[in-house]
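fyi for ur records
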Amino acid sequence: MVAPVEIGEGGVNLLVGNGLLKQHQVGDRHAVGAACLLALEEWATGRGARSADLVRGSDEDQRELISAQAH
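which gave:
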């Protein structure tokens, strides 16, 4: 199954913040796609986002969560 997915700045920041994507790769759509697949695999095995708020929150909310996870 194939489904187009749009990843916004907040999603890319989550990928970088969780170590699934390097900052220098944010403009590489293949690297972002691979990081998204890794995120889905982690989510499917229970290692993904701990809260639905992480997915539904604003970009600012996501940056705060990433920052909190990093410290």
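The CA atoms of residues 54 and 62 lie 6 Å apart. thats all i got for now
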